[in-house]
Amino acid sequence: MMDVRPGADFPPDLFHALLSQQMVYRCDADDRIVDVNPAGVRLLGYASAQDLIGTPMADLYASPEDRGYLHSLMREHGAVRDLEVVLRQRDGTLVFVLETAVASPRAEVGDVDSSYWGVMKDISDRVEAQRNQLHTNLELAETNRLLKATQSRLVQQEKLASVGQLAAGLAHEINNPLSFIISNLDTLRSYVTALNRGLSAVEGLIPEDALRDHRQIREEHHLDEIAADLEDLFRESRHGLDHITSVVHSLRTFSRSGIGQSQTMVDLNEALESTLVIARNELKQGITLHRDLSPLPPVSCRADEINQVILNLLLNAVHAIRSRHTDAPGTITVRTLAQPDGVVLEVEDNGPGIASQNLRRVFEPFFTTKPVGEGTGLGLSISYDIVVNRHRGDLSVSSEPGRGARFTVRLPLSGETEET
Asked: How many distinct structural domains can be found in the chain?
């Protein structure tokens, strides 16, 4: 057993460490254990000190390189204080310790041919507590991130719900006077047609000598040209009113299902066309839209949410094309097709594409490659949540840098949506 007494050959710090039941060891110039106290035997999981005598200290380290680092510090300073190292017990269990070591008092700084004294304080409990705290902090950070994402989604959805309600109210307010205008225009057109027929009939009754004056008056006042223009004006006006009717219908379709309402049977092509009307202004600006739509069976879904997904994908494609910084024409292709178990919608653009390292992150909340202030990073995340979590479908992306991106939505024909 070690003969440890405070004196010239045993520093006082090590003596007091022994009294506190910390591991105390002494090694020779070859860095092999010469002696070790009972606390050290217990710490390393051995039966007796004899099992450790002659063992190279480096063999007890989880990383032998750490022992070499300690030697370099000893050669430079003659002592090391509270160096955190990891030891390996006899059964392989790792132990975290703080090691303090000094060269023999008779050795000079830089003397590598001297023995070492060392003290090791077990800090495994502290390290484990730190790990647990770190794990807790990470969990809290993740929870906070999810709460922030959820809050932002709710705010975004509330805004979209408000937009939907505004659209529905606006459609209602426009629809009533629009109906009167269409009805009055049709009536006015029929009146003008009747007047023209009446005038033609009256003209046949005018005496020949007065007919010449009648025709002269018609020519002077351009009545024939006006009659011809009236028909064009009626036709163009009706075309414009039909377009307004289409927009109103799209607004009503886009906002048909409010939050909290159950799913309905929806024609994805109709939903797409309605959303295209909403996004028409964005799509006009130097972008060509190609449609490749197949006949589709209706799917059971929440119409407002699917419209939101389509709008997000369309606007995402528009923004991608605008980020190219080129005058080359932009194109967006929307494609639908039926499958045995569902329907598919594809939105493809010829934008700059998505870098491979970003592909797996495009659906993460708050992830965006846009400059600061130009994007929330929520559009695709919300779309993914709606399609995958709310409708048990699938939303995927494929892209090749420089060749655009394609987003694919797959929706099952039926199935209960998840409640919010």
From this structure: 3
